[in-house]
What we know:
alpha/beta; six-stranded mixed beta sheet; 11 helices; 2 domains; Rossmann fold; Alpha-Beta Plaits
Amino acid sequence: MTDIITTNALCKQYGEALRVKDLDLAVPEGGVYGFLGPNGAGKSTTMKMILGLARPTSGIITVFGRQVNDSNRLAILKEVGSLIESPSYYGHLTGRENLKIISTLKGLPDNEIDRVLKIVRLENQKDKKAGQYSLGMKQRLGLACALLGNPRLLVLDEPTNGLDPAGIQEMRELICSLPGLYGMTVMVSSHLLGEIEQMATHIGVISKGELVFQNCLSALHERSSNSIAVRTLDNKAAEKILRSQGISCQEAEDYLMLPDLADSDLVNYIFQLFNEQIGIVRIEERRKSLEDIFLELTGTAVSL
Length: 304
């Protein structure tokens, strides 16, 4: 699988603050790449650099296999659609009139407007003034603008931000359908793990400007391994006995945390504790959630 976007040692500094540090992104072609991180982690700054809206302090950006520079940036961006931060529109014009302005600038036929209106399900509100649209409709209008010309790459910055649950689900379904129906690659950012988990095939996690994880979503799931939590009347003594048997364990919140064990092995170790007159209070099977993994990667509490 080829990468439609790559960055190498990408940095962006504002004054004394290094907002993006040595970022090496690899966005595979033909899927949905979830760019995940807390607010202020550097997601929007990175996307702006990819789109040429902010100049990198250092580093290399490659899109469609071509290193982006001043001479080819506009040619590359002709094949890229984007929605950064919030949609821009003329409130006194209808949805269709807003799209007509963009399509004229791009030299596209009028039937392209009707095509994208149908994709984002705004064909019945196309003659309504954009200023009277709901927030969800404005987001869909912004997405329609990004879809004009059927771009190979779509870059979306927090497209579900501020939407109600119904609007979030609708936007999520739209984004998930684009690679399969139109062959697009989508790069979508969010600070909500639950959103990215339901959309993305691949994921990159950024924290304080640095990439802390990048792989397919299944690789993140593999980190959520099982463990066994055992609570006894004497955890110190129990830990000593288990360690003497070669079992790695540590105490956490009045529990001894053991690795995932086969049932027969667990029974054997519990029987040994019983023989040593260690009272067993509780045994629990625990699985580290994706939220826990995300918090470990980013080192901060965020909305999940």
